[in-house]
Automatic annotation (TrEMBL):
It is found in: Cytoplasm, Cytosol. Residues 63-232 form the Exocyst complex component EXOC6/Sec15 N-terminal domain. This is Exocyst complex component. Pfam families: EXOC6_Sec15_N, Sec15_C. GO terms for biological process: acceptance of pollen; Golgi to plasma membrane transport; intracellular protein transport; pollen germination; pollen tube growth; vesicle tethering involved in exocytosis. The keyword Cytoplasm applies. It comes from Carya illinoinensis. Component of the exocyst complex involved in the docking of exocytic vesicles with fusion sites on the plasma membrane during regulated or polarized secretion. Involved in polarized cell growth and organ morphogenesis. During cytokinesis, involved in cell plate initiation, cell plate maturation and formation of new primary cell wall. The keyword Lipid metabolism does not apply. Signal peptide: none annotated. Belongs to the SEC15 family.
């Protein structure tokens, strides 16, 4: 078959049409446009609409017929061009008809043979397909059965874990059922049952975990209290070991002064080793069980309720802490303070453990907020309770426990400065209460004093009353029974003051202030100078009525001077201050007023006693014919009394105290002698009487010199200097040149204690032996004595000066 040639659409030539038909140009143009639109398969609607609108559809029909006639001729030309090819194609088709018939018969025969052969095969195929379908159904059933068996096994494991309270594994089984089996379960009944039971089981687990967590919250409060008490007890034990170590160090320091350094430090090393072995382990704080809490937290995480459980935990613990802040008004705080603070300490020890091991159950910021709340409440409680307390010991007990609480919680990283600030704030109140207690105790101790030397029958009494306060004057232990130079007041007061020092140091220790010796020293000064000194002075002024009592108090004050040194050393040692630094800042004797009152009382009583003997001076013959050889009677009595006094006083009074007392008494005797000559009772006297007084003063000076074995030479000279006024007056009256008193140099050297007014009055009383009654008549013309002349000149000059 030959292929047809391609045809090209040729539009009729408008110009030739115009030449052929001779129509007008408008019709030709319209015909040309219509032909072009038809050739280009354009829409003829516009041409039709135009023809009908113009009312000339015939023209359009004419143009269309003209176009058809032009196309028929063109078709004819095309057919003429392809006629031969069409004839050839028809011939070819006719030749193929015979071949098609033979092929059809061949195909029919092949089909018959195929049908006869494929029949049995189709039967076998149908049987095979049916068997395969049955096999697939059986396999599907087996697979479904296997899935069901595995599902039942997982359900069984879930029930087993639930029965054994292994809730986490039960939840994991439920998750496995949901993800691996629920969508693949062939049984709709089983699937509905699982969809119903799984939420119920989860709700049951959540309720059970919540109940266990609630039980743990109840139990942890008791555990926290015990835990806090245990932790604070360990801190107390550690503090006690530190105190023991300080005591050993102080002992080493004391003994090192005795050149025993090496063996002391050897013993110290052994003791330290023992302490290291006996030190309790800090692991005892880990005895509380957080398993229920962590299991609940883990289960809640598995259930997808982690954030809700965190909030629930925090709110419940916050409520517990708030309830722990309640202070019972029915129980004294002194009895409940340990439980109160131990409960809070245990609470935060538990929270610290949960913060470190809880996997984010509670944040550090939340713990810090709880701690700030707790510190604020504890400070408020302490402020309130301290303001009500009126007993120093109660305040000290609570302070010690609070400081132990601070030490305990500081180990866990909690800041405790605010608590320590509250303790420091009440430092003054505590010491005021302590001073009040000591004032009462001292008053009771002094009221019980019998002003008798203390008898110690056993060595332990000596150690308890003397050595423990370093009152001994010798390292040699005396023989027993031992009579001390002081009365029972001294060790009683020493015990009170030592207890004050220890209580003060105990309050200041572990309170956040490292160097507190100055504070302890300040309050110790107040105790000694304001309390003890005042009570001793009052006791001396109101209860001392005899020389023996006054002497005992003077002896007590001398011993108390050594005791005060011990108090300040003891305070320095307890405060951790080296003794050399404490001794560098020593202050004057704080009981100086009581000491002066005691010595003045003793001197006053002795003066009164001496005055009794001095009344015998009235028996002196002031116009004696001869001077007495052995002194006047009054002085002999005074000397005997003074010698008896010294023999008794030197057994209990220190040498310096005895010297001051004797010096005061001798000065008083000297003043009495001068006063007697100056007073109105003696109208006149002669040289013989003055020579007798000179003998008296020599006896007193001899008495002073005889005290040299008791005192040093310088002290003996000071005793003699107490007689300076009477000695200088007698020397002036017995001098051959009394006018030398007017010489400033000689006066300053030999008569510096004399008052010129007294000298004038006493000198006027001096008479010669010839100045007896009626003696002037026989000596009217006699020559005047040069000494008398010099004395008269002295009197005249002194009167001119005055």
């Amino acid at each position: 078959m030959h292929s047809t040639k391609s045809r090209r659409k040729v539009a009729p030539n408008g110009a030739s049409a115009a030449v052929d038909y001779g129509a007008d140009s408008a019709d030709k143009l319209e015909q040309l446009l219509l032909s072009s639109a038809i050739c280009n398969n354009e829409d003829l609607g516009p041409f039709i609409r135009k023809a009908f609108l113009s009312g000339k559809p015939e023209t359009l029909l004419h143009h269309l017929r003209h176009f058809a006639r032009s196309k028929e001729s063109e078709i004819e030309e095309v057919c003429k061009a392809h006629y031969q090819d069409f004839i050839l194609a028809v011939d070819d088709l006719k030749s193929l008809l015979s071949d098609v018939d033979s092929l059809k018969s061949s195909l029919s025969d092949s089909n018959s043979r195929l049908q006869s052969v494929a029949g049995p095969l189709l039967s076998s195929l149908d049987a095979f397909l049916e068997s395969r379908t049955v096999s697939q159904n059986v396999n599907l059933a087996l697979q479904s059965l296997a899935n069901c068996i595995r599902l039942i096994e997982v359900c069984s494991r879930s029930n087993y874990h639930l029965s054994n309270n292994n809730l986490y594994m039960a939840l994991k089984c439920l998750d496995s059922i949901e993800t691996d089996f629920l969508d693949k379960t062939p049984s709709s009944t089983l699937k509905r049952m699982l969809e119903k039971k799984i939420p119920e089981i989860r709700a049951y687990i959540e309720r059970k975990v919540s109940k266990e967590f609630g039980d743990w919250l109840v139990e942890i409060r008791v555990v926290s209290r015990n835990l806090g008490q245990l932790a604070i007890g360990q801190a107390s034990s550690a503090r006690q070991r530190e105190e023991d170590l300080r005591i050993k160090q102080r002992q080493a320091e004391e003994q090192s002064r005795l050149s025993l350094r090496d063996c002391v430090y050897a013993l110290q090393e052994e003791d330290d080793d023992e302490d290291d072995h006996n030190a309790p382990s800090n692991d005892s704080n880990s005895s509380f069980d957080l398993t229920p809490l962590y299991r609940a937290y883990h289960i809640q995480q598995t259930l997808g309720l982690e954030d809700r459980f965190k909030q629930y935990y925090f709110e419940n613990r916050k409520l517990q802490l708030t309830s722990d802040f309640q202070v019972s008004s029915m129980t004294p705080f002194l009895e409940s303070h340990q439980t109160f603070f131990a409960q809070i300490a245990g609470f935060f020890i538990v929270e610290d453990r949960i913060l470190r091991t809880g996997g984010g159950l509670i944040s550090k910021l939340e713990v810090e907020n709880l701690w700030e709340t707790a510190v604020s409440k504890m400070c408020s409680v302490l402020e309130d309770q301290f303001s009500r307390m009126q007993t120093a010991n109660h305040l000290l007990l609570i302070k010690d426990y609070v400081s132990l609480l601070g030490v305990t919680l500081r180990r866990y990283g909690y800041p405790v400065d605010s608590l320590l600030d509250v303790l420091s704030k009440h430092r003054d109140k505590y010491h005021e209460l302590l001073l009040s207690d000591c004032r009462r105790q001292i008053s009771e101790a002094l009221a019980a004093d019998k002003f008798e030397q203390m008898l110690m029958k056993k060595e332990y009494e000596y150690s308890m009353n003397v050595l423990s306060f370093q009152l001994q004057t010798s390292d040699i232990v005396p023989a027993f029974p031992y009579v001390s130079p002081f009365s029972s007041t001294v060790p009683d007061c020493c015990r009170i003051v030592r207890s004050f020092v220890e209580d003060s140091v105990s309050f200041m220790s572990y309170g956040g202030q490292l160097d507190f010796y100055d504070v302890v020293k300040k309050y110790l000064d107040r105790l000694l100078s304001e309390v003890l000194d005042e009570h001793l002075s009052k006791l001396i002024n109101t209860s001392v009525h005899g020389v023996s009592q006054a002497m005992q108090m003077a002896a007590n004050m001398a011993v108390m001077e050594r005791a005060c040194d011990f108090f300040f050393r003891h305070a320095a040692q307890l405060s951790g201050i080296p003794l050399r630094m404490a001794e560098r800042g020593r202050r004057p004797f704080p009981l100086s007023r009581a000491r002066d009152v005691a010595e003045d009382m003793l001197s006053g009583l002795l003066k009164a006693k001496v005055d009794g003997f001095m009344t015998l001076i009235e028996n002196v013959n002031w116009m004696a014919d001869e001077p007495p050889q052995s002194g006047n009677e009054y002085l002999n009595e005074v000397i005997i009394y003074l010698e008896t006094l010294v023999s008794t006083a030197q057994q209990i009074l220190p040498a310096q105290v005895l010297k001051r007392v004797l010096q005061d008494v001798l000065s008083h005797i000297s003043e009495r002698i001068v006063g007697e000559l100056y007073g109105d009772s003696v109208k006149r006297f002669n040289v013989n009487a003055i020579m007798g007084i000179d003998v008296d003063i020599r006896l007193l000076e001899s008495f002073a010199d005889n005290q040299a074995p008791i005192f040093s030479d310088g002290d003996a000279n000071q005793l003699k200097m107490a007689l300076a006024e009477s000695r200088q007056l007698i020397n002036l009256l017995l001098s051959n040149h009394p006018e030398n008193f007017l010489n400033p140099v000689i006066r300053e050297k030999s008569y510096n204690t004399l008052d010129h007014k007294k000298v004038v009055i006493i000198s006027e009383k001096l008479r010669d032996s010839s100045d007896r009654l009626f003696g002037t008549f026989g000596t009217r013309g006699a020559k005047q004595n040069p000494k008398k002349k010099s004395l008269d000149s002295l009197i005249r000059r002194l009167r001119e000066v005055s």
